[in-house]
Design goal:
CATH class of the largest domain: Alpha Beta
CATH topology of the largest domain: BirA Bifunctional Protein, domain 2
Radius of gyration: 28 Å
Largest sheet: 8 strands, mixed
Mean pLDDT: 92
Strand content: 15-25%
Number of domains: 2
Distance between the termini: 48 Å
Shape: elongated
CATH architecture of the largest domain: 2-Layer Sandwich
Amino acid sequence: MLTKRPRGTNDFLPEDTAKWQYIEKLLREICRQFGYAELRTPIFEETALFLRGVGDTTDIVQKEMYTFEDTGGRSLTLRPENTASAVRAYVENKLFAGQQPVRLFYMGPMFRYERPQAGRFRQFHQFGVECFGPASPAADAEVIALAWEFYRRLGLKNLELNLNSVGCPNCRPAYRQALQDFLRPHLLELCPTCQERFEKNPLRILDCKNPQCQQFLQGAPTTLDALCDECHEHFEAVQSYLHAAAIPYRLNTKLVRGLDYYTNTAFEILLSDIGAQSAVCGGGRYNGLVEELGGKATPGVGFALGMERVFSALTAQKLALPEQPGLDVFVAVLDKQAQTMAFQLACNLRQSGLAAGYDTMERSLKAQFKYADSQRAAYTLLVGGEELTRDSVVLRDMQSSEQTEQSINEIVAILKEKLAK
RNA sequence: GUGGAUAUGGCGAAGCGGUUAACGCACCGGAUUGUGGCUCCGGCACGCAUGGGUUCGAUCCCCAUUAUCCACCCCA
């Protein structure tokens, strides 16, 4: 179907894009304040980057990637997320050689082949930040604070920050073992996916939603119990930073980032009023990722948030964004002879920095006024008729309906002054 | 990939075997000839997702397909 967009994609019409621009502007402003600069990476990358960077046991890699072969026989994949690309760019462009930390943000479309539902699309948009270099818990708290500040300024309520620590390569193997030992007696009673996870990725069993599996997890050891001294100290410090920033959170020992290169802090921001897909933000620390992708070992921490879900949240909580201003002035024509004059006037007004519209539909004067009204024009200029013989035009204030006759040579200056521009 | 619901004009929606396919919003035009927002009048679906079938006859019944929505898995 030629007039049907692909499944799971969206057209954002002018009404929508105005809102997107507002949100994007807010995010850019917050990033500026936090010292994060924009990174733009390709929409597609070598498939191998995601296999490695996202992890080949993840659902994303196993069933959700848009992978294709280009004419040169390369296997490429539309990015399903942007962290792997950011790490690749960090290493490839040798950002490690400059001043650390390297604070980056990105926003743009991501692609995952999934069944669409509320808050889930095949092409969706993420904003995210990555902070490379610092191992300090202050960096963990910094990125969380950045996300939190965004939601605070939007005025969203009922947000719940979930926090956990998944340890590091020193303490995780022991925990992994302890969890397996704990679950082994019930191994055959776990759901099929969890049975598979048992060997490959036992931590993921923790966040299985199957009630049966959750039952067997009662009393299971948590990652927090198993943290080594260093990880414990790190996690405590993150929490005290959050306290200092007055950011409320909830410890959630079931929250995991199952892959080996994810370390220490894991967090999610949840909002239940937007449907089943309630995570509006997810992130954590990945001290092993840069090395995994071929760079030298570099700590990192970051998060991503889903733009579409932000809009769902705004709608659910009935939060209206400021409206875009309408036209400063609409130039209406009385007769055909005035058309060129009107066009010229509109051009002059625009050159002076005003937003000016005029009639391109060759409509009646009445219809032109109606249009001016629909464009929320502050003023309408009426060009033509006997006024033109006096080198003047009619200026109508659309709010008060007051009309005056003005010299055509002074009208631009008059309007600029009235509109204070 | 699995399950459920839905599919009538630009949008919302009535009709549910035989109707000129309501109505509201939006849009367009007009209301004694140079003017908007209110009001009034008029216009706007040869067709009811697509393809089959049942029937004298189908938007309305049956089947398939596709799409949308919601949920599962999982994630932003």
